[in-house]
Each structure stands twice: as C-alpha cells, then as structure tokens.
Specification:
mainly alpha, globular
C-alpha cells in the first residue's frame, strides 16, 4: 500500500488524470468500507469523499492503515493486499 501511494505521489499529473487517481480512490473507498464493516458491523458504511487527484495517495494510505489496525483474520489481510496489488496494476504506476 505504501509503495502504491509513493508511486502515485511520484506520478505525473497526466497519469493521475488518465485514471490512476480514480483507481486509487476506488481502492481507498473499498478499504474504508472493509474497515468500517469490522469496526461497526451492521451500520451502513460512510463513503470516503473524493478529495481530488492529488489526495488519492494519502487516502489509500489512511484507509489501508485503518484497515490494518482492525484486521485479525490472515485471509482477510491477504485479500486486502491482493486488492492493493490489483489496483496498482490497473492504475499503471
């Protein structure tokens, strides 16, 4: 996750505009939903706002770390790591 965030921070604006930032925001939102489901089961998840393409790296960092703090199941951790790897590949960074 930190590697993906660092790559986003180093990416040119054109790459962010071509979809890398959108991919990062989608990942951050998914990670946040997973964390919220563990922390507050049965409550509707709150959607992470779109703070702009230059904030996408910070959003995945925050959401990923929040999820890491509450994850206890190694299989869930493996799934989250796979989500990050897939998103980075789709983002092309």
């Amino acid at each position: 996750m930190d590697h993906f965030a660092d790559r986003l921070r180093a990416a040119p604006q054109s790459r962010l505009q071509r979809g890398a930032a959108t991919e990062a925001l989608a990942l951050a939102r998914e990670l946040a939903v997973r964390a919220q489901a563990i922390e507050e089961p049965g409550t509707p998840p709150r959607e992470m706002p779109d703070a702009g393409m230059f904030a996408a790296a910070d959003q995945i960092t925050v959401a990923g770390r929040d999820l890491a703090l509450v994850l206890e199941d190694p299989e869930e951790l493996a799934r989250a790591l796979e989500l990050v790897a897939q998103a980075q590949k789709r983002a092309g960074v």
